[in-house]
Specification:
By secondary structure, this protein is an alpha/beta fold. It is built from 16 helices and seven strands. It has a five-stranded mixed beta sheet with strand order 3-2-1-4-5, with helices on both faces.
Length: 389
């Protein structure tokens, strides 16, 4: 099939797609040499048809597609859709809504942690996807026939997957579980990349307020520079270098030149003075304005053993109810539950609490025991105890 290359044809196609209850969506993009993803191809399908949109076609206006993404009457179906949604957010300033992510739904239904699209197609549809075009250059034109076949398969199989998962969710009464997970996926906060918060993604050894202040200023400067130049962060300055500068805090070109992690002559480059200015700003910053660093505190005596028991309970619960353990609780959740019955974690609210949280508290309180029966771990209520969930 030929891709859509004109605004007029796109508007007509999106008008047809909007007549349906749902549309499956996928994108092909490049990001290796840019900060923002470069959208190359959009695929979409309904039960009636499937289309490919050439997002790089001369003069094409993608507004009809973005209007479809904002249409509240149409469910937008993605698989691992965070990056696809991020692209729409960046280009159009909107979050597709409502959405359904088949990867999340599959996890809720026990297909394992973060199952891939091709694995889901194999298990639910019995088809093997030819992945040879996955890492091709989607910006080159014309698109090859192999690329078009691959692209369209990404949304046609997704129709069948969506309907099967939806039916299974309804049969098991878990539709609302997926709905709760979609709140994060459709929150603008998920996609905002504020320079002031860029330091949070860095793994650094900073401990002192002065070090943290420099780290925050350096990360914010790099984020603004990378966004403005549309270049990957690492091309501006690498993560480990930011961490070293935060620790050493050089204030002159000579001191900056002494850092072995920087290339020779960096102190005289266009970035050298900007780095020194960020260091100066960090050192002059009021410590009271700094964000708080969450320290990894050692668990209290006995809590480590409790965490291990909770891990066993989690695995048992996940297997018993056919839900991916990762969706129910994380290791951090378990550690916080081990320390406090009032832990403010997802595992202690909503359906997760019904499934796991109440039992976790019962295990801590000695009202529930774990035993092995015929090779399987089982939960045993202790005499006189009443466990909900």
């Amino acid at each position: 099939m030929d891709p859509i290359t004109s605004t007029e044809a796109l508007a007509a196609a999106c008008e047809r797609l909007a007549r349906h209850d749902f549309v499956t969506v996928d994108t092909e993009f490049l990001r290796e040499t840019t900060f923002w993803p470069k959208l190359c191809v959009i695929q979409a399908a309904t039960p009636d048809e499937a289309i490919i949109i050439d997002a790089l076609a001369d003069g094409i206006d993608l507004s009809p597609f973005f209007a479809l993404m904002a249409n509240e009457r149409v469910m937008k179906v993605f698989h691992a859709g965070r990056q696809d949604i991020e692209i729409v957010w960046h280009l159009a300033g909107i979050i597709p809504h409502p959405v359904f992510d088949t990867q999340v739904a599959a996890m809720v239904l026990g297909y394992g942690d973060s199952i891939s699209y091709d694995q889901l197609v194999q298990r639910l549809c019995g088809h093997a996807i030819d992945k040879s075009s996955r890492f091709t250059d989607w910006s080159r034109r014309p698109l090859s026939q192999a690329q078009l076949v691959y692209a369209i398969a990404d949304v046609t199989h997704l129709r069948d997957i969506y309907l099967k998962l939806l039916q299974d969710l309804q049969a098991r009464g878990r539709s609302e579980w997926v709905g709760e997970e979609m709140k994060v996926l459709t929150s603008p906060a998920t996609y905002r990349q504020e320079p002031e918060n860029a330091w949070e993604r860095l793994k650094s050894r900073v401990r002192k307020p002065r070090e943290l202040a420099v780290l925050v200023e350096l990360a914010a400067w790099r984020e603004r520079e990378a966004q403005a130049r549309d270049q990957p962060r690492g091309r501006i300055i690498k993560d480990d270098v930011i961490g070293e500068i935060a620790l050493q805090q050089p204030q002159t070109p000579e001191k900056l030149a002494e850092l072995r992690s920087l290339p020779k002559g960096f102190e005289r480059s266009r970035y050298g003075e900007a780095v020194l200015e960020a260091v100066r700003k960090g050192l002059a910053r009021d410590p009271k304005t700094l964000p708080r660093i969450e320290r990894d505190k050692p668990l209290p005596n006995g809590a480590s053993a409790t965490v291990e028991l909770l891990k066993v309970l989690l695995r048992m619960t996940a297997e018993q109810h056919a839900v991916a353990a990762k969706v129910i609780a994380t290791t951090d959740d378990l550690e916080r539950i081990a320390v406090s019955d009032e832990a403010d974690v997802p595992a202690m609210s909503g359906w997760r609490r019904e499934l796991f949280g109440n039992r976790a508290l019962a295990l801590k309180a000695g009202q529930l025991a774990l035993a092995v029966d015929r090779g399987r771990v089982v939960a045993v209520e202790r005499a006189g105890a009443e466990v909900t969930g």
